[in-house]
Amino acid sequence: MKIAVLGAGAFGTALGQVLTENGTKVQYYDPAFSDVTLIEALSGAGMVLLAVPSATLSTVLPELPKDVPLIVATKGILDDRIFDDFSDVMILSGPGYAEDIKSHKPAVFTVSDTRLREIFAADYLKFDLSQDKKGILLCGALKNVYAIMAGLLDLEPGTTQHEEFLTDVAAEMKAVLEANGAKAETVDLSCGKGDLRLTCGVPSRNYEFGRAMRLGDSCLPGKTVEGVTVLGKIREGDLIVPESAKYLRDLLEKSEAWS
């Protein structure tokens, strides 16, 4: 089977490497890295793997075939209504830096479909299974936002303050998921607490962005900071923010100056 991987950045190519090692034919599409057109990449593909920045989804999704299963590895999606048919969408999310995956370091991902366990089977990868696709997406978006806050607060991983922050944020994320029609318990999976812990420290660019903003520096050049994009979407009304989400509300107020 051929899988078209849309997005040839670090994460897209890391997942593509897993597929290739499993004998799957992979065709990348990414105008920044290749002259291959989207039509060429999609030709003959049995599945499409989406690994593009969330800010580009509005231009990419309308061009995808409606009869080919879609695997979403993009993080930063708050509104599942961007998909025409959410029932035929599979989600893969969780902690794992691209270079670690390429080096075959152990990682645990959350998947919404058992097919993904087979497609990405590797002795160094394990998988949680959850049918809460919306919750998986929300966790993947929110963890970047809270990583910015961890950087702003200058919290060092391994300290008591950092651990208390992670505990408080996990509870806050559960409240946000419930307020938006997802399941609170999804936060307990690798896509939630696992990815949150990984992202709230170096070398996470969201964490580093928060630290830079704390020092009054400008946005990190040449890097996508997904948490900033997500905050903009939240301000536009793409997410219900409960009163109890104090960290998120505080960050929304602070981020007004970054827009």
Describe the SSE topology.
Layout lengths: L1 E5 L3 H12 L3 E5 L8 H5 L4 E4 L6 H4 L9 E3 L16 E5 L4 H5 L4 E5 L2 H6 L5 E5 L3 H20 L7 H20 L10 H10 L5 H10 L11 H10 L10 H9 L5
Parallel strand pairs: 1-2, 1-3, 3-4, 4-5, 6-7
Antiparallel strand pairs: 5-6
Helix pairs in contact: 6-7, 6-8, 6-9, 6-10
Describe the protein's architecture and organization.
- The protein has helices at residues 10-21, 38-42, 57-60, 98-102, 114-119, 133-152, 160-179, 190-199, 205-214, 226-235, 246-254; strands at 2-6, 25-29, 47-50, 70-72, 89-93, 107-111, 125-129.
- Strand 3 (47-50), helix 3 and strand 4 form a beta-alpha-beta unit.
- The chain is of the alpha/beta class.
- The protein is globular and about 50 Å long.
- The chain has a seven-stranded mixed beta sheet, with helices on both faces.
- The chain has two domains: 2-129, NAD(P)-binding Rossmann-like Domain (Rossmann fold, 3-Layer(aba) Sandwich); 138-258, N-(1-d-carboxylethyl)-l-norvaline Dehydrogenase, domain 2.
- The chain is built from eleven helices and seven strands.
- Helix 6 (133-152) runs antiparallel to helix 7, helix 6 packs parallel to helix 8 and helix 6 crosses helix 10.
- Helices cover 43% and strands 12% of the residues.
